[in-house]
Write a structure and sequence with these properties.
With 190 residues, this protein is α+β, with helices and mostly antiparallel strands. The protein has 10 helices and 8 strands. It has a 3-stranded antiparallel β-sheet with strand order 1-3-2.
Length: 190
């Protein structure tokens, strides 16, 4: 179990362990079933939500509220993981019961815009970069509290790591250019 203490059925099969043997290992208490197809060592309470997210939803990209908190643009710790997934992943997302998740189903053309990786409590996860996260704030403006929106945009404007060229490019690609530039020009020039 090298994947942070989580093993898939396929990992056992690759090691020559048959499905019925996995069932026996569970019954005898050598491993515990997390969910269908995923196992851990008994009493492995150290399995984190980050590890589960990485293993159970590998195509997911941390986004929106979770990304805002990760970058320090919001001091509101989300109660659930905001994760961007392809629209084809709806069945996989609906099966997740191990941790709270809010899925954003993104069309294929926009899914990879601003995708990067970063460490979340020692686990490397896909996450949208700062610029994509700010674009998402404008895209989902009606779903975001005014105070959180304003804090996020102001924090981005003050961020030494911001990349205005990427912000502009993403805003054009996502058809948000006018909205984004109107607000950011005021902040950056004010």
């Amino acid at each position: 179990m090298n994947n942070g203490g989580i093993a898939k059925t396929a990992d056992f099969v690759a090691e020559g362990i048959k499905n019925y043997e996995v069932v026996v290992l569970c019954k005898e208490g050598f491993i515990e079933r997390i969910r269908r197809g995923f196992y851990q060592l008994p009493h492995s309470n150290q399995i984190t939500e980050e590890q589960l997210l990485q293993e159970i939803l590998p195509q997911g990209i941390v986004c929106f509220e979770s990304a805002l908190f990760h970058y320090g643009y919001s001091d509101f710790a989300p109660r659930e993981w905001s994760v961007a997934v392809p629209r084809t992943a709806s069945r996989a997302v609906k099966k997740i019961e191990e941790f709270p998740i809010k899925a954003y189903y993104i069309q294929k053309d926009f899914l990879q815009i601003g995708k990067s990786t970063d460490s979340f409590n020692g686990v490397t996860l896909a996450v949208y970069d700062r610029e994509r996260t700010i674009c998402d704030c404008f895209k989902y403006r009606t779903k975001l509290d005014n105070e959180i929106f304003n804090k996020a945009v102001n924090a981005y404007a003050a961020d030494k790591n911001k990349n205005l060229a990427n912000l502009s490019r993403y805003a054009r690609e996502m058809k948000l250019y006018a909205k984004v530039t109107n607000v950011t020009e005021v902040l950056l020039n004010g």
